[in-house]
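Q: What would this complex look like in 3D?
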Amino acid sequence: MKNELSAFVDGEAEVHEIGGLLAAMRTDADLRQSVSLYRLIGDSMRNEGSLDRDLLPGVMQALAEGPVVLAPKIRQKAATRPLLALAASLAGVAVVGWLAIAPRLPEPSLIARTESAAPVGVEAVNLARVRSISPQVSGGNMQEYLVAHQASVSSIQLSSAAGHIRTVSAVGGQ
Amino acid sequence: MSRVIAVCLAGGVLAMPALAQENAGAALQWLQKISSAAQRLTYSGVFVYQNGNRGETSRIAHLVDNNNESERLEVLDGSPREIVRQNDEIRCFLPESKLLIIAHRNNRRSFPALLPKSMAGLTEFYQVRKGPPGRVAGIDCQSIVIEPKDDNRYGHTLWFDPQSGLLLKEGLLNDRGETLEMVAFTEVRIGGPIEQDALRSHLESKTSGWQVFNVQSSDSRGDDGQWQFHVLPGFRRLSWLKQQMRPDAPEVTQVVFSDGLAAVSVFIEPASGQEKVADNAFSMGAIGVYKRRIGDYQLVVMGDVPPPALKRFAEGIELRKK
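A: Here is my prediction, written as structure tokens for the whole assembly.
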């Protein structure tokens, strides 16, 4: 049954097998669950969709219960297929593993935010009045607040350059 | 054969969390190294600060000598603003406004104790991992990527010198991965000697006629229960201070919160004037400001968190009825 199921998930089952499987799935919850699990495995190997954290217990259980055929054509087709399937599987594992550890660091682009552009996320909460401003024109004495703020949070700053420059860049300059 | 394939797959799945954990652990250790390097290293150099469409070049010199810290930062473009620090005293010279602001760092003594705790707590609200190696100011460096797990904080990318731990480049990223703010050395020299002239104020002799605001701050034990703060997840209170911003102004209460990386200050003072002023939000670079009036008090909420989060922070403050 597992071989048939695996072939079904991969779209490689024979017509006469599909009818029987669909009929069985209507009544068999375990079978439906197995189909979901096999689809998840297939997706992860092909790097489609996200790898569900709950997948692991299912995989381990399936392993404990018996062989899981991930490359259904192995059973009857040409002798080269198992090797290809193994290569694909290993590549799949490699991709999944790589995704987990790969840095997704974008090359930093110094994207200009113009005065007219709304700051981040402003639209989402309708903060229409948020604007970039110099403290001198804020109608208040923001300089001291900013200096006091930066002085108070210096203990968590990783670089004094970043903390200081915020103070003098925001309160003075061109 | 099929079992081999399945085992390979399962092995890969099993290896993922372990690798990710190891990666995060190494990144956290580096983060700790960066933090301590900022305090103990002598260095000098030139760095660029980019904020939105604005960029400025500055020179910095930082000397640690017998546990004494001296530092001077001078902006090289536009108005020659300058910050000079001797241990906890910060003097901020703003020639365009003819203003000298003197302030004092407050949390320095709690720094060593604070740090490891915040580092461990970081992973609850940020994903911290190693990034790719890079090169900044002629130095081969390593990067760390810090991504927020919710929309209450910004992301960071840090590039540092693995030998010394000195932070060479820092980027602040919004939820779309766009760089809001960037500080990057273009040249740096790690270690001394540093000439005394590089550390003394060049503007001090020119401050005749300037306004001087000496911000006097004192620790306040005083949570008198009057205010209730429903802070954003992960933020905890760092300090509760009384600030005398100007001699003629009323005392201001400043309550500082942090999640270990981002920080929000809440300034509370008696409201001047009777008129009801609408809540008001604006930003000064990456620092957002949200002004709010509650009862007879004016609140200024300020910090490096996204504007919607800052608004939520401000709206989570309540004046308890006496």
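A: To summarize the key features: Residues 1-5, 7-14, 108-117 of chain B have pLDDT under 50 and may be disordered. The two ends of chain B are 75 Å apart (CA to CA).
Q: Very helpful, thank you.
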